[in-house]
Structures are given as structure tokens and as C-alpha cells.
């Protein structure tokens, strides 16, 4: 199969970027691993700190082996009094006691326990200002320092009824009065599948811990605000362009990611709403995780529709929406049971997404390389978070950062897309303006042509009437000179009015009626017959194109008159309203009282007189008029409709 030569170059460039991102993420993942021998580690429930440690580190993680008392809530005094008979074990923190794999020991996560660590400080630390950073516990804790309660999250109890769950990372300030400090943590859990601490408890100066807390909280606020703005921006774009559903799915994807960050990390939601119920916190958190992938797949499916395979697409959508529905109607313990199969599904979904993006890159789709790189970054951070969640690696949660990088890259490419679209629209606007200008020139040319045609008809109409009248005068000169003089005077009077009004665009209809009467008077003398003429509803001051009805009367004499014909003329006018528009309707009727034929209505006609009428109407009321003519029962009628408003 023949391939394009540019594909290998694009692929190599994309692969180079992927390698660089992978190396960066591996370095990030490794930087927090406790391989540095200078960092302290708790052993057998004891840890000793030196001045050099705090000088080299802004904070020290109290990781390592803590004394562990399963199903006991002990105070410092109780431990000292009963040290000889208490059965204790050690547990590595961060970690969960239900993960202990020792022969003959099984620790249920739905229980309560006590952790103890003896911390030794250098003498120079005495009376200094120090603090602990305490992450959330699964699912509630009390912390004592030298038998003094210094921090509490929720309510710790020895039964589910007595326990109230709560998650919120805290900073606790204290001033040591001696070198030896005893830390006791009482932890209770009846809701989660894990019990203990997933993240490290940290020790440092008040200033350094405050700075650390502020940085973490600021980062959370920054990510939440950024995701909210991205979501709102693309939703607004969708409202303006509803046929592009990729904008809607990207907005929803951004929104659920914002909710995820709202319910994790520094738990900004609990800072805003301290009394928020823990059960709904868990539900919202899991919903934000499970709904992310359906919206992501929908977004990619709209951006690269030709590359997506519908069958796996619908399977993944069904699975994740099923998880989401299950989360809404289940208790917290059952909700966490879905986490492992959901994580497996996420990994397969990521592979499927990679396949879509790879096909898009191979097919040289616009911005496919950028989408692939952004998604790779997100995938590696999500993989890091899953391993961190399973307590396999000791890093940090980088998922929100990967999400932000993906969103920023996609926002950039979408903005670039609409920027190009805007440039295209601007180009089309210029071309449209040129087209409109051309059409306007053509229109003006047509108008000029029509006007020239009208002038030709004017010059045709007037000689037509004059020839007929002169023929009649010639006849009467030989038969009756007195009568010929009378006819000649009438013709001169009529021609005087025609010369007066013919060059005008509009004249008062009163002048038109007077001209019609002159012409009928001439025809009376010529034909030696009686003709009746009347008007109904006519306002003499209304404007009308000249010679309209005069021409229609001339046509009537030409086509309707005969020796036996008895003609009468009526011009009727009324106003009608259609919707918001007002029209003037003129009805010109010629009655021939000797005719009895049925009417034959016709809208066609190409006579010189009617064409002259049409051109006059178009000149004065361009596009706002209509003319209908045809036979009536006793003659002929013409209906002219002119839009006023």
C-alpha cells in the first residue's frame, strides 16, 4: 500500500515528543521516592531528627514503622501503664492496616486502631515554632501530642454508630517544651475499604508548613478556577454554535474534572462547606471520576468521527454510566468495590483512545499530534495516581496537573481552530462584500436598462394614440369639418396633459383621472357613442405613475370596443392589511354590456400597453407591487396592488 512520505516524519516528531514527556514524568515520579539516605525513617516506632535535616528540607515526612495497636483506642498514659501486657505491632505509614500480610494476622478495615510514634528533636528545637501537616485519614482520626489533643477530623468511635467520618487535611501548630515528643493517632473506619493514611504526615517549621499549605491550596484553587473558566468558555461557544457538539462535551469534561479537584487534594469543598455530608462527598468524588471518560470519549468522537469505532465506544459508555448509576444508589463500601474494575476499564479505555488518536495522526487530521501528546501526559499522571492509590509507589497525586495540561492543550487547539475559522469568515466576508457590490452594480445596470426600455415605451405609447386620433380627424375632415375641429381641440388638450406628466415619476391621481376623461371624450366624438366612466374611493391627491389608467383605457378601446359594444369604465380603490403590511389596491374594470361569456382569468400578457404599466410600477415601487389582469363576465379587469408600509 502506498503511503504519504510526510507520515513518517510526523510520526517520528510525535514519538520524539512522547519520549521527552515520558522522561519528564518519570523524573517527577522519582523525585519523591525515599531513596535518599539523609532522610529520616521511623523504625520500631521511633524517629530522631537533626538540625541538618531541616536545613536541607522544607519539611520532613514522618514515614516508616509506627507502633500499631489494633482495635484499641489508647492514650499515652494507658500505653505506658500497660506496656507489658499490650500486644502491639508495627505498620509502615503511609499505609493501610488491612494490607498487612503477616502469618496468622488478618486486620479488618472496618475497625479502629491506635498509632504511636516517639519523635526526638535536637535541643535547639525546644521552644521553637513548629507544625504538623496531617493528611486526611480513612476515615477519621484524633491526634495527641504528649497526651494533649491537638487535631481531630470527625468523631472517632469504637462502633459505626459512634463514628462520624470527615476528610480535611490540616496544619497543626505547636511549641515543643522538651526533646522527646510522643505522637498518638486514634483512627476509626467503618465506611471505606481501606483504613489508615494514604499520604505522609509531615513535620516542619510553622513558616515552611504554612507556605506548603498555601502552595497546595493555591494550586487547587488555580486548577479549579481554570477548569471552571475553560468549561464556561466552551459552553458559551456551544450556545453560540449548537451544531458543534464537541464544544459541549469538552465543557462537560472540564466541569467534571473541576468537580474531581473540588472533592480531592486539599478538599476545597469542605473548606467552603464544613458541614458537607461525608457520604455525598464520596459519591460526588466517584461520579466525577467515572463520568470523566464518557465525556472524554464523546469529545474525541466528535473531533475525530472517522477514526472512532462505534462498538467499543458504546461499550465503554455503557460501563462507565453503569458505574455512575451504581454510585448514586449505593453505600460507600460498595462504591469503593467498583474502583478496581473501573480502573481496569479506564486502562483499556485509554488504550482505545490512544488507538483513535494514533489513527487520526496517521490520517493527518488537524491537531492530532497535539491531542495525542496531551492525552499521553494525562495517561501517565493517571497511571501514577492509580499506583499511588494502591500504595505501590510513594509519589504525589499528579492527575489534576495532567488534566490541566490536557485541557490547556485542547483549549489551545480549539482556539486555534476557531481562530482559523474566524480568519476564513473574514475572508468570506470580504468576498461577500465584493459579490454584493457586483450584484448591486448588476442591479443598477438592470434598472438603467429598464429605464431605457421604459423611455422607449413612452415614445411608443404616445405616437400610438396620436396615430389613431389623426386617422379619426382625417376621416371627419372629409365628412364634417366642424366636427373634425372639435375632435382636434380635444386631442390637443389631451396631448397637452400627456406632455406635462409623461416625464414625471409620480403624479396626483386626480390629474390621471382628468386625462382619462379627456381620452374618453375624444373617443365619444370619434366613435359617436356614449361611454360611461366613474371612480370609487379615489383620493385625488394620491400619487400614481403617469398614464397608468390612461394606457389601460386605450387598451380597452383597442381590444374591447366594437360597433355593438357598450363600454363603461370603473376605477375602484381600497386599502387592505396583510400581517403588518398595508396595501393600496386599484381595480380597473371595463364593462361590455353586450358580452355574456364566462370569465377566463389570465395572469399573462405581453401587450405594449401592459408592459408599459409594469415598467412604470417597477420604476416607482420597485419590488413592492403586483399586477393581475384577465377577462371578466361582462368585459375585462386589471388589479394593481401596491405596498404602502
Describe the 3D structure.
GO terms for molecular function: kinase activity. It holds the Pfam family His_kinase. This protein is α+β, with helices and mostly antiparallel strands and 645 residues long. Helices cover 53% and strands 19% of the residues. The protein is built from 16 helices and 22 strands. The chain has helices at 6-30, 51-56, 76-81, 206-240, 245-262, 268-272, 278-303, 310-329, 332-337, 339-362, 368-389, 399-479, 481-501, 509-527, 548-559, 608-620; strands spanning 46-48, 60-61, 64-70, 89-93, 95-96, 111-120, 130-134, 137-138, 140-145, 148-153, 170-174, 180-189, 196-197, 202-205, 507-508, 532-536, 543-544, 567-578, 581-592, 601-602, 625-632, 635-643. The strands form 5 sheets. Strands 1, 3, 4, 6, 9, 10 and 12 form a 7-stranded mixed beta sheet that branches. A hairpin with a 2-residue loop joins β9 and β10. It is rod-shaped. The relative contact order is 0.06. The model is unreliable at 1-11, 17-37 and 598-605 (pLDDT under 50).
Amino acid at each position: 500500500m502506498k503511503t504519504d512520505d510526510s507520515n513518517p516524519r510526523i510520526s517520528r516528531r510525535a514519538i520524539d515528543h512522547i519520549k521527552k514527556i515520558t522522561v519528564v514524568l518519570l523524573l517527577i515520579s522519582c523525585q519523591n521516592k525515599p531513596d535518599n539516605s539523609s532522610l529520616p525513617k521511623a523504625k520500631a516506632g521511633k524517629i530522631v531528627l537533626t538540625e541538618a535535616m531541616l536545613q536541607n528540607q522544607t519539611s520532613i515526612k514522618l514515614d516508616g514503622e509506627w507502633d500499631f495497636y489494633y482495635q484499641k483506642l489508647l492514650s499515652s498514659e494507658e500505653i505506658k501503664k500497660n506496656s507489658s501486657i499490650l500486644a502491639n505491632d508495627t505498620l509502615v505509614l503511609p499505609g493501610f492496616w488491612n494490607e498487612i500480610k503477616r502469618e496468622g494476622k488478618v486486620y479488618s478495615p472496618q475497625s479502629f486502631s491506635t498509632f504511636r510514634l516517639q519523635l526526638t528533636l535536637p535541643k535547639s528545637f525546644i521552644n521553637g515554632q513548629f507544625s504538623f501537616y496531617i493528611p486526611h485519614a480513612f476515615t477519621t482520626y484524633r491526634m495527641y501530642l504528649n497526651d494533649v489533643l491537638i487535631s481531630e477530623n470527625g468523631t472517632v468511635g469504637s462502633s459505626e454508630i459512634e463514628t462520624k467520618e470527615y476528610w480535611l487535611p490540616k496544619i497543626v501548630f505547636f511549641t515543643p517544651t522538651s526533646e522527646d515528643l510522643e505522637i498518638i493517632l486514634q483512627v476509626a473506619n467503618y465506611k471505606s475499604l481501606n483504613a489508615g493514611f494514604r499520604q505522609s504526615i509531615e513535620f516542619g517549621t510553622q513558616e515552611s508548613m504554612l507556605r506548603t499549605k498555601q502552595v497546595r491550596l493555591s494550586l487547587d484553587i488555580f486548577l479549579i478556577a481554570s477548569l471552571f473558566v475553560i468549561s464556561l468558555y466552551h459552553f458559551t461557544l456551544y450556545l453560540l454554535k449548537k451544531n458543534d457538539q464537541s464544544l459541549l462535551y469538552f465543557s462537560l469534561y472540564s466541569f467534571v474534572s473541576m468537580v474531581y479537584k473540588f472533592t480531592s487534594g486539599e478538599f476545597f469543598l469542605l473548606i467552603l462547606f464544613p458541614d458537607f455530608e461525608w457520604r455525598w462527598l464520596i459519591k460526588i468524588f466517584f461520579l466525577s471520576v467515572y463520568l470523566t471518560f464518557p465525556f472524554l470519549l464523546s469529545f474525541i468522537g466528535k473531533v475525530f468521527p472517522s477514526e472512532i469505532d462505534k462498538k467499543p465506544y458504546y461499550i465503554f459508555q455503557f460501563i462507565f454510566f453503569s458505574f455512575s448509576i451504581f454510585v448514586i444508589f449505593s453505600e460507600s463500601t460498595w462504591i469503593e468495590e467498583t474502583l478496581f474494575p473501573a480502573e481496569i476499564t479506564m486502562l483499556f479505555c485509554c488504550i482505545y483512545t490512544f488507538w483513535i488518536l494514533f489513527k487520526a495522526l496517521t490520517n493527518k487530521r488537524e491537531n492530532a499530534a497535539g491531542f495525542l501528546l496531551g492525552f499521553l501526559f494525562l495517561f501517565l499522571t493517571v497511571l501514577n495516581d492509580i499506583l499511588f492509590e494502591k500504595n505501590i509507589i510513594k509519589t504525589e497525586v499528579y492527575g489534576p496537573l495532567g488534566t490541566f495540561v490536557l485541557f490547556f492543550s485542547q483549549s489551545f487547539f480549539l482556539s486555534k481552530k476557531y481562530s482559523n475559522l474566524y480568519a476564513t469568515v473574514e475572508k468570506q466576508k470580504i468576498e461577500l462584500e465584493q459579490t454584493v457590490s457586483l450584484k448591486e452594480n448588476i442591479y443598477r445596470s438592470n434598472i438603467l436598462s429598464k429605464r431605457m426600455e421604459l423611455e422607449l415605451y413612452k415614445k411608443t405609447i404616445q405616437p400610438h394614440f396620436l396615430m389613431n386620433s389623426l386617422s379619426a380627424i382625417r376621416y371627419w375632415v372629409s365628412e364634417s369639418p366642424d366636427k373634425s375641429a372639435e375632435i382636434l381641440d380635444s386631442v390637443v388638450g389631451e396631448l397637452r396633459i400627456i406632455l406635462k406628466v409623461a416625464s414625471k415619476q409620480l403624479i396626483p391621481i386626480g390629474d390621471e383621472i382628468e386625462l382619462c376623461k379627456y381620452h374618453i371624450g375624444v373617443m365619444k366624438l370619434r366613435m359617436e357613442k356614449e361611454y360611461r366612466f366613474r371612480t370609487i374611493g379615489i383620493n385625488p391627491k394620491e400619487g400614481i405613475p403617469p398614464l397608468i389608467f390612461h394606457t389601460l383605457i386605450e387598451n380597452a378601446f383597442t381590444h374591447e370596443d366594437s360597433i355593438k359594444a357598450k363600454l363603461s369604465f370603473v376605477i375602484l380603490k381600497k386599502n387592505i392589511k396583510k400581517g403588518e403590511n398595508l396595501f393600496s389596491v386599484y381595480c380597473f374594470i371595463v364593462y361590455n354590456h353586450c358580452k355574456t361569456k364566462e370569465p377566463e382569468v389570465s395572469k399573462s400578457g405581453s401587450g405594449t400597453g401592459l408592459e408599459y404599466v409594469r415598467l412604470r410600477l417597477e420604476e416607482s415601487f420597485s419590488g413592492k407591487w403586483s399586477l393581475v389582469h384577465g377577462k371578466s363576465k361582462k368585459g375585462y379587469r386589471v388589479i394593481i396592488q401596491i405596498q404602502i408600509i
